[in-house]
Specification:
The complex is a heterodimer of chains A (433) and B (272). Chain A is mainly α. Chain A has a domain at 2-290: Cytochrome Bc1 Complex, Chain C, CATH 1.20.810. Helix content of chain A is 67%, strand content 5%. In chain A, a hairpin with a 2-residue loop joins strand 5 (311-313) and strand 6. In chain A, helix 4 crosses helix 5, helix 7 (158-172) packs antiparallel against helix 8 and helix 14 packs antiparallel against helix 16 (396-432). Chain A is globular. Chain B is of the alpha+beta class. Among the domains of chain B are: 2-53; 134-256, 3-layer Sandwich (Rieske Iron-sulfur Protein). Chain B contains five helices and eleven strands. In chain B, the strands form three sheets. Chain B has a four-stranded antiparallel beta sheet with strand order 2-3-4-5, with no helix packed on it. Chain B has a four-stranded antiparallel beta sheet with strand order 6-7-8-9, with no helix packed on it. Chain B is flat and about 90 Å long. The chains are: A mainly alpha (433), B alpha+beta (272). Chains A and B meet through helix 5, helix 7, helix 8, strand 4 and helix 10 of A and helix 2, strand 1 and helix 5 of B. The complex binds FE2/S2 (inorganic) cluster. Residues 198, 200-203, 217, 219-220, 222, 235-237 of chain B line the site of FE2/S2 (inorganic) cluster (FES).
């Protein structure tokens, strides 16, 4: 049977030799190499659950009066989009499960991408020849963040509506072209009649772009082969691991099911984004203690910490929002994008690397990485400063001042600590060897 | 072996349970748990299988070289330049194709213009006019008798859905007012009206701390001093909330003297 099938394909595509090389391919094994796979698997769950949801969701801002089975909102005026999200949650069989599966998968998708990226960064896996896949990976991260934001916004609930309004204002703040950009993106002064349908259109199209770029990401990985952790017998010339067929492929499929299972358990047991509690979007209300999803909180934190600072230039204004909302993230992602080139330029190391570095063996890079993470962490705290201030029973003003200092001091302190610890570890490793 | 078998037994049982739960509409938790056990059981089964039964020796293999040989590169470049020369012989045709493509590109990019109308007049417009009556979100006019310390959201009469015109009405002790110059008659009886759209990033400014007469934006905690014309006293907002001048008409209802003192909402480049 298999033999007939193989012959059928080979006589038409000549695929046997490629297939033979492929199933014999050697894959290194290390738990941290699975993070990228987790991202890939949650993407599959996302697409599957997303197709289910798309069959019910109605991206329309037409005002309707709710008459469905959720009593607390009976008779309330809302958009048709919000009503269809309520219907999915309460009236479609397995609908709420699918919504939660989709949301949890999205969060795990982003978390896994970020963890994957940190692994690559701290072990120097982005060095030549893999700079190209680093750049593609960062692009995927940006697309994923953007698409999570669109998906989070389309139910048209009060919580996500607040986020949309802020996103609109951030676009509006760009000098020269901000007003046009914001109007072109949102179709007018938010809230407009077309915002939800536009975001929904993007939300459905972007996964195809992600899929295309992801395919390139994996093809390049296939061509360049994995890196190896340092160890006996591993060098720039040799790769050590297990063959794709049968062991690696079996584990790969097994891991997919495990990830799928974990997301299902979360989706079944832990409520996420209960839009019925937030209520429909309504332009003159805001839910208190409102916060965006975690992957964008750092940006929200930057908006909160940046001081009041509108600039006037010859009768025009550069809104203070522009600096933390646009310039800072552009600068940050610029550095992330070009990191492999920046590092190669500074160290003068342009040679090919297939063996990873333990983080401690490169104290400067490790210090920079920890500093950057600390910076983001302070911004995340700032992004929930109102909640945090209540929890710590201080004034928001006091907390804000403290965070404004911390955002400069903490990254340096943590970075220096990471630097010295790395050097100690490196020294003791060298002594042990 | 035994581990793999156990996992797969769990998987089969849970998959059956999932079917039962779904067809009886048993709810989110039962679906989630049964599906989780079904797929994770299968996954664990596969992983155990791979570990126990197919114990694979570690393989070490030559990576080979990614780069092609110098000779291959040379041959490629040769073929390419031969073709390039043929194209370059007809420079004019190349230019013409280039400009057609460029113009068509511009044309297709121009299509994004359809996505939005011109922002400029719109961003300055509200529907407040001299004499417009203030009404509650239900459309009732607001009498000049409400108590000190109250805050409410009001709209221009006939336009309770005009979001750019949403306004906060607050009554404070008139003797404490320290409004900017030129606004002495804007707050009759201590009635103050400000745009409800935060000048920082457009959230509705929803919290009023009446003991200190401060308006707080819940989004990034900008604070505005109501008595001083909603001047910024904390947080990231860059300018005061625009004030709506008021008067009390002969029937005792509040009306606007005109539009806001500035355009409402977040700041942008073209403000002049
Ligand atoms: S929107 Fe009000 S403080 Fe940012």
């Amino acid at each position: 049977m298999i033999s007939r099938l193989a012959r059928w394909f080979d006589s038409r595509l000549g695929a046997a030799s490629f297939a033979r090389k492929s199933i014999d391919k050697v894959f290194p094994d290390h738990w941290s190499f699975m993070l990228g796979e987790v991202a890939l698997f949650s993407f599959i769950v996302l697409v599957g659950s997303g197709i289910f949801l798309a069959l019910f969701f109605n991206a329309s801002e037409t005002k309707v009066v709710y008459e469905g089975s959720y009593h607390a909102l009976k008779g309330v005026q809302m958009s048709a989009a919000y009503r269809s999200a309520l219907e999915i949650s309460f009236d479609v069989r397995a609908g709420l499960f699918m919504r939660q599966l989709h949301h949890w998968a999205a969060l795990i998708f982003l978390g896994a991408i970020m963890a994957h990226m940190l692994r690559i960064f701290f072990t120097g896996a982005f060095r030549r020849p893999r700079e190209i896949n680093w750049v593609i990976g960062v692009t995927l991260l940006l697309l994923a963040i953007f698409n999570d934001f669109t998906g989070y916004s389309v139910p048209d609930d009060l919580l996500s509506g607040t986020g949309l309004r802020i996103a609109y204002s951030v676009l509006l703040s760009i000098p020269f072209i901000g007003d046009w950009l914001a109007f072109i993106m949102f179709g007018g002064n938010v809230p407009t009649q077309v915002t939800i349908s536009r975001l929904y259109g993007l939300h459905v199209v972007i996964p195809f772009i992600i899929l295309a770029i992801l395919t390139i990401h994996l093809m390049i990985l296939w061509r360049q082969k994995h890196t190896n952790c340092p160890g006996p017998g591993r060098s720039n010339q040799r790769i050590v691991g297990s063959r794709l067929w049968p062991v690696y492929s079996t584990k790969f499929v097994g891991l997919f099911f495990l990830v799928f299972g974990a997301i299902s358990a979360l989706a079944g047991l832990i409520e996420i984004n209960p839009i019925w509690l937030y209520g429909p979007f309504n332009a003159d209300s805001v839910s208190s203690g409102s916060q965006p999803d975690w992957y964008i909180i750092w940006l929200e934190g930057a908006l909160r910490l940046f001081p009041s600072s509108d600039l006037s230039i010859a009768g025009h204004t550069v809104p203070g929002l522009f600096f933390p909302g646009v310039l800072m993230p552009l600068f940050m992602f610029g550095i992330i994008y070009f990191w492999p080139y920046i590092e190669a330029k500074v160290t003068g190391d342009h040679s090919v690397h297939h063996v990873l570095q333990p983080p401690a063996s490169n104290p400067v890079r490790t210090a920079i990485g920890f500093g950057a993470l600390t910076y983001l962490l302070v911004l995340v705290v700032a992004g929930s400063q109102d909640v945090a201030a209540v929890a710590a029973s201080t004034q928001v003003d006091t907390l804000r001042t403290a965070l404004r200092i911390l955002v400069f001091v903490a990254p340096v302190a943590v970075g220096l600590t990471a630097y010295f610890i790395s050097r100690l570890v490196r020294k003791s490793d060298a002594g042990a060897a | 072996m035994i581990k793999a078998v156990c996992s797969l037994v769990v998987s089969i049982a849970a998959a059956a349970a999932f079917l039962v739960f779904y067809w009886n509409d048993m709810g989110t938790a039962s679906l989630g748990v049964s599906l989780a056990l079904a797929v994770a059981g299968a996954g664990a089964g596969l992983v155990f299988w791979a570990h126990d039964l197919m114990r694979d020796e570690e393989i070490s293999e030559d990576r080979g070289s990614l780069a092609s040989t110098e000779e291959e590169i040379e041959t490629f470049l040769e073929s390419f330049t031969t073709g390039e020369k043929k194209i370059a012989r007809r420079k004019v045709l190349g230019w013409m194709i280039g400009s057609a493509a460029g113009l068509l590109g511009l044309g297709s990019i121009s299509l994004i213009r359809s996505l939005g109308r011109s922002p400029l007049p719109v961003l300055f417009q509200t529907v407040w006019r001299p004499g417009t009556r203030l009404v509650t979100p239900d459309g009732n006019p607001v009498p000049a008798t409400i108590e000190q310390g109250t805050m409410m959201t009001v709209f221009p009469e006939g336009n309770v859905n005009a979001t750019a015109s949403q306004t906060i009405l607050i009554r404070v002790d008139e003797s404490k007012l320290r409004l900017p110059p030129g606004r002495s008659n804007w707050a009759p009886g201590g009635f103050l009206a400000f745009s409800k759209i935060c000048t920082h990033a457009g959230c509705p400014v929803a919290q009023f701390e009446k003991t200190v007469n401060i308006l707080l934006c819940p989004c990034h905690q900008s604070a505005f001093d109501v008595l001083r014309g909603a001047a910024v006293v904390g947080g990231p907002a860059g300018r005061p909330l625009p004030q709506l001048p008021l008067y009390v008409d002969s029937d005792g209802f509040l009306r606007a003297r005109g539009d806001f003192s500035q355009h409402p909402g977040p700041e942008f480049w073209n403000r002049s």
